TrEMBL record:
Gene3D superfamilies registered for this protein in UniProt: MFS general substrate transporter like domains
Keywords, in A-Z order: Membrane, Transmembrane, Transmembrane helix
One function term, GO molecular function aspect: transmembrane transporter activity
Organism listed in the record: Vibrio panuliri
Transmembrane segments: 12-32, 52-71, 76-94, 138-160, 166-186, 234-251, 272-289, 295-316, 328-351, 357-377
Keyword Membrane part of the UniProt annotation: yes
Pfam family, one: MFS_1
SUPFAM superfamilies in the cross-refs: MFS general substrate transporter (SSF103473)
Listed name of the protein: MFS transporter
Length: 392
């Protein structure tokens, strides 16, 4: 390998693709609540419906294993990124319920297939020793890309006063160009272990499945309703939301790699216990908050806990057969999105009656997750998946 080509490694490939989603998907999310309220006249039920449709591709993520019969994982990942970026680019041109449902479906299909494949390839290409810190590093790099994205979004909104459609087109287009660059710059890498090309559901992975399901439910409370609270109740503008995301990803950039290292030191059980205890407090705080400043503080703390969820992935890597990574990634994303398909639309109706009730239910979900996390062994491994209720 010549010196110029030495940087073309699987690790650097994973670093490079970690930049794409923050540019395309993060800009989509940052503008969404203001776009749907100001341009498409959405209410709580409409945003719930949109977010449920957004999660349908995640629910169908298990189908990735069937597509892999015809296309290699790495190539499929790049195709998924192209769908994500193109879906983002055209979002602003369809400010209606039907238009947003269709563009969201395209964007989300690319996003969820990509996330499934990224988890699979990361756990295949990284050793168990380096995985926690490396995954944290990828989050940190993505956070830096998000910081730059949100800074650029703020400039577009506050300095140049660009319309939503041109901002979506700009950031989706930049993401698509980066996908094309990665496609022509990196070779195809070989996997160390041939992956099973069929659906794999193993009884001994039951705790991982349960943690993944609860993680998907908790994520919806944050993704859908915490952001909606900021706009609907406290009147945050698109520029305000952008600044809030800047703060979120500033913390992630500074601490995500350290959090990954922390998980590697203390283990998955302690890391997840800390996360879920904190989340109970955060969700109760959302239900009771009366000021925009305290709501923003809760939002930042909530987002910071996302990095600790890496512990669920490293737990899987330690207990699973290496040949199961691709299939289990697809199955786990489907499990993660069972709640994601149902919660936004049903909780959107709850929101119309009592926004606080949505967050109290979220606190209950965090408590269930806490109980599950206590069942993780101090040193998880194949044959030592849980402390109690072994199911082989």
């Amino acid at each position: 390998m010549n010196q110029f080509a030495q940087w073309k490694t699987p690790h650097n490939f994973l670093l490079a693709i970690s930049i794409i989603v923050p540019i395309a998907f993060s800009s989509w999310m940052a503008l969404l609540n203001n776009f749907v309220i100001e341009r498409a006249n959405f209410d709580g039920a409409d945003i719930g419906l949109l977010q449920s449709v957004r999660e349908i591709p995640g629910f169908l993520a298990f189908t990735v294993i069937f597509v892999l019969l015809f296309i290699r994982e790495q190539r499929f990942m790049l195709l998924s990124l192209a769908m994500l970026t193109l879906g983002t680019a055209i979002t602003g041109f369809f400010p209606s319920v039907v238009g947003l449902l269709l563009t969201t479906l395209l964007m989300s299909t690319g996003f969820h297939y990509f996330e499934t494949l990224k988890q699979s390839l990361s756990l295949q290409w990284l050793s168990k020793e380096e995985a926690p810190e490396a995954l944290g590093k990828f989050v940190s790099v993505g956070a830096l890309a998000s910081l730059l994205t949100y800074g650029a979004l703020w400039v577009c909104l506050e300095i140049f006063h660009l319309e939503f459609k041109w901002i979506y087109l700009l950031f989706g287009g930049v993401g698509f160009l980066l996908v094309m660059w990665i496609a022509v710059s990196f070779p195809e890498f070989e996997a160390n272990v041939t992956q099973n090309k069929k659906l794999v559901l193993r009884k001994r992975y039951w705790l991982y499945y349960a943690l993944t399901f609860m993680s998907g439910a908790r994520r919806q409370i944050f993704t859908v309703f915490a952001g909606f609270l900021m706009v609907e109740r406290f009147g945050y503008s698109a520029a305000d939301i952008t600044l809030l995301f800047l703060a979120n990803y500033g913390f992630n950039f500074l601490f995500a790699k350290k959090i990954g290292r922390f998980i590697g030191i203390v283990g998955e059980r302690k890391a997840l216990t800390f996360e879920y205890v904190g989340l109970i407090g955060v969700f109760v705080g959302y239900a009771l908050v009366e000021t925009a400043e305290w709501a923003a503080a809760l939002y930042i703390v909530d987002h910071l806990f996302f990095a600790l969820a890496l512990a669920i992935k490293t737990y899987l890597q330690k207990i699973a057969d290496p040949a199961d990574m691709a299939s289990t990634a697809g199955v786990s994303f489907t499990i993660n999105h069972i709640a994601a398909v149902v919660i936004p639309v049903t909780f959107g109706l709850v929101w119309l009656v009592s926004p606080a009730a949505v967050f109290y239910i979220g606190a209950t979900m965090a408590a269930v997750s806490l109980l599950l996390s206590l069942n993780i062994p101090a040193k998880p491994a194949e044959g030592n998946e849980v402390r109690v209720f072994k199911w082989n």
